[in-house]
Amino acid sequence: MTYVLRRIAFYLFTAWAAITINFFLPRAIPGDPVQALISRARGQLDADAVQSLYILFGLDTDQGILSQYWDYWGQLLRGDLGLSFTFFPTPVADVIADSLPWTLALVGITTVISFLLGTGLGVLAGWWRGSWVDLVMPVTTFLSSIPYFWLGLIAITLFAGQGGPFPSSGGFDPGVVPGWDLGFIGSAIHHSILPAITILITSMSGWVLSMRNMMLTVAAEDYITVAHAKGLSERRVMVSYAARNALLPSVSSFALALGLIVGGTLLVEIVFSYPGVGFQLFSAVGAKDYPLIQGIFLIITLSVLVANLVADLVYLLLDPRTRKEG
Fold first, then answer.
1. Rounded-to-integer distance, Cα 179 and Cα 188, Å
2. Which parts of the chain span the membrane according to its record (predicted)?
3. pLDDT tens digits, residue range 283-321?
4. CATH hierarchy code of domain 99-287
5. For residue 10, how many other CB atoms are within 10 A of its CB?
């Protein structure tokens, strides 16, 4: 219990630091976002209207920076991430809520599948080293070196060109109304196949390589020799003794990958113009939409912290040594 409380306290402090940096960093960026908004709108506003915009976006110069900081915390506790410049007057929370399901469905599912498949293949390749399973290693090594976006461009060229079976961009067909009906779901799945395969191929290769290396290390441990000497079956030794211990380093990596799901795979979403959080972040940077950038970074940071906290708790179940005090 002491270990759990200590980890929770650590992550709470880290969350406070991340939120504080998230508040001060946009204010340190050169430029005036309110004036940029007025320029894009091509409107003429009097001094009172301009001052109202500064107050609305929490940038009132009449307030001290500490007062703005406490107001920002009050907004966060109410679930208010501010207003988007690009989609003004739409709240940032609504913009993120519209794009987040796309990212969770695409990157979330492919991340879990790639971890399961890659870990399974890595266990087999490490345990049955020198057999035919090792044939997958040159392939996975080559695939893991290919960037997401490059493989995405190749996939678009081969399968989404003139008369290709898959669309090259977007989340659903033009004219389809988003909703929980078969027409929209089928269109969304059709548009997600190419980016999903792109993410799956490149990310799965990394899990195979890391798990195989850990299996080779664990297979040389004394407790594996003892397990064989006790007459345990090959499958039980591989799964319960070798794979369970070899999996420990991958837990942290998988937790980090789960946390980064919220941010999406930025380059893949840009290549396929997929309407996820990553593509939204890219658009926000180009439009200098500071509130939206700030909100997305905050959501990504908190999701990574929560995922790592869950990984620490999983460690308690997988490794009894972490439950020992001192």
1. 11
2. 7-25, 102-128, 135-162, 182-209, 246-272, 292-318
3. 887 777 778 888 888 888 888 888 778 777 777 776 666
4. 1.10.3720.10
5. 14
